[in-house]
């Protein structure tokens, strides 16, 4: 049976990316070698990582003179450490907007390295909203935001306006819509939601920001070293970077961020419309802050859970269970999710 | 044309592993979902990582009461940081045997965290040998060795005998032969040479060693956190761990470490015998310290280089160029390399 994969991450990838990835495992570029057995310093792989970096800058409309692209190990959680090491001076202070679990984790890890100020938080209402009324002190080394909150289903529509360096964890909505990426100084994102498979983490850095913390930084955690070595201080995650290159190419071929934004808006609309229309369901996040990526909702009558789960399973709807920390349901409708699959879920909701 | 892949890493994997990996990209466990699109917390993937850990303990003949198995992000280079954070007390001292580039890098990174003493080094002779005549001070927090040196082609036959905790970077010879693994307290190894694809790093830790450094350790760098979360503090490198599970299963099915050791010895023997017999070649490493994994050699007459390279290419021999830091040739003959491919290389050497 055809599955409709709403998994929050790792998550659905485009069919053509899967096909190309499977072929490359057996025979990459007609070399009679697998993508997973070739040297990361071979010209074949150098072309892959170079292409992936070019696609990132092209999709983000950023200039390679100003910005550097890295594909790092360790996920966004390792970026909590790297941003602190590379951007937070020993006596400096970092500012955070706390919009949920991932912001909170970023705050906790950054505190190990220095002073942290939480400028605003939506914890008071179970992270159902994005804080808006706050002022940003100007004595901060940088301001950190989490652009989309996978667990609660909230997403920034407008980012804080500030002269401070702006650092964004975009793990769950990177390249899902048009954005003025030049407003950001560091962007990082685990690949496994919108641009690939798990195992690699995209980092986009404004180069002029680096080398100013006065810290001695271990090589693997040092953006300057990683830039100097082209993300190859050590063996990179070859297969995951290859999959990201394919995914980014798919995004470009699809019409880029403008086209994917329209599709993502259409997908979210039919799902939120059904949640708002259907008395069996209620949305979790405040309407104005609803995420285009993670649609969170609850049953109004918990006794219908067994029936709903059964209908969903029968329709091939996969992985809509909410995060263990909030319960309910969550449909993740990342870039690769076809609108037809969202319609299948909507039909199941209608049938309840 | 069939390729014989002597790449130093990423490197050759068993054919059956490639086949299974390619199938799992398209349809994993008959789920109609890809291995790269399922949640790392799904029961399907939990079975994969649990099986991989069990296979590690089984092959190493280690007890799960005493030892913990992790599959980490970041390669061996990140283990340089993690071993320091987790094993080196703030006022303590770590001891290293310097047998080449990777030992030197480990030393350099550990110095960022504390005191380091280099007990012995073979740098004086271009790392052609493994130091043997040294005494280990007993005021060290631990002693670190690099079991096999990919670049120079040397390998420990006997490890230093010490009562100190023994930490080993086994990236280039893990599970290539029988070993009393219980003599080690921490073993780490990037997967991409002997047990998988790049993107994941095996760590085996004696649990009783942890929690004693007095350091505040960022979560991603903290062995205790990683153990507590079962290598899933964040999204692990799903595909790479799956490939390692397949590879470890292949090793077991092949007869385990005793069987692979015999095969690896036979492969190395025919190659070293040819190097010693053929006046066109000379080995790089001292005979008594020669690696079973990386066979390093040079031409005695550099004018024959073009002809040798051409003969090798015509026979499908891939990636025998020596590391850029030492030149010459290096044939990496890891676990998955069939003896037939080594014979092809030997035939090319004979034909020169």
Account of the protein in words:
2 copies of one chain form a homodimer. By secondary structure, chain A is an alpha/beta fold. In chain A, the strands form 4 sheets. A 7-stranded mixed sheet of chain A has the order 2-10-9-8-5-3-4, with helices on both faces. The first copy, chain A, has 9 helices and 14 strands. In chain A, helix 3 crosses helix 4 and helix 7 runs parallel beside helix 9. In chain A, strand 3, helix 4 and strand 4 form a beta-alpha-beta unit. Chain A is globular and about 60 Å long. Chain A folds into 2 domains: 105 residues, Aspartate Aminotransferase, domain 1, CATH 3.90.1150.10; 239 residues, Type I PLP-dependent aspartate aminotransferase-like (Major domain) (Aspartate Aminotransferase, domain 2). The longest helix of chain A is centred in the last third of the chain and has 22 residues. Chains A and B meet through helix 1, helix 3, helix 4 and helix 6 of A and helix 1, helix 3, helix 4 and helix 6 of B.
């Amino acid at each position: 049976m055809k599955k409709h994969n709403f998994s929050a991450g790792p998550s659905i990838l485009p069919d053509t990316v899967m096909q190309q990835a499977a072929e490359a495992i057996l025979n990459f570029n007609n070399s009679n070698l697998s993508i997973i057995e070739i040297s990361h310093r071979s010209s074949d792989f150098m072309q892959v990582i170079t292409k992936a970096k070019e696609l990132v800058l092209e999709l983000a409309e950023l200039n390679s003179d100003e910005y550097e692209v890295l594909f790092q190990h360790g996920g966004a959680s390792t970026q909590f450490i790297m941003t602190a090491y590379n951007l937070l001076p020993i006596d400096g202070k970092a500012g955070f907007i706390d919009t949920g679990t991932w912001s909170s984790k970023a705050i906790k890890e950054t505190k190990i390295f220095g002073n942290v100020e939480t400028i605003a938080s939506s914890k008071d209402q179970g992270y159902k909203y994005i804080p808006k009324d706050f002022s940003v002190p100007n004595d901060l080394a940088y301001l950190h935001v989490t652009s989309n909150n996978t667990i609660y289903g909230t997403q920034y529509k407008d980012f804080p306006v500030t002269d401070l360096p702006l650092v964004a964890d975009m793990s769950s909505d990177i390249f899902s819509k048009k954005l003025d990426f030049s407003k950001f100084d560091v962007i990082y994102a685990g690949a496994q939601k919108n641009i690939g498979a798990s195992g690699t983490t995209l980092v986009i850095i404004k180069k002029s920001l680096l080398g100013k913390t006065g810290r001695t930084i271990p090589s693997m955690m040092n953006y300057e070293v990683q830039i100097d070595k082209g993300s190859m201080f050590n063996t990179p995650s070859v297969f995951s970077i290859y999959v990201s290159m394919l995914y980014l190419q798919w995004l470009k071929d699809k019409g880029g961020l403008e086209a994917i934004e329209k599709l993502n808006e259409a997908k979210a609309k039919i799902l939120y419309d059904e949640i708002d229309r259907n008395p069996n369901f209620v949305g979790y996040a405040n309407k104005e802050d609803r995420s285009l990526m993670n649609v969170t909702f609850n049953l109004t009558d918990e006794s219908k859970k067994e029936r709903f789960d059964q209908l969903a399973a029968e329709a091939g709807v996969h992985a809509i269970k909410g995060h263990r920390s909030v319960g309910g349901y969550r449909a993740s409708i990342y870039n690769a999710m076809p609108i037809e699959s969202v319609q299948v879920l909507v039909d199941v909701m209608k049938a309840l």
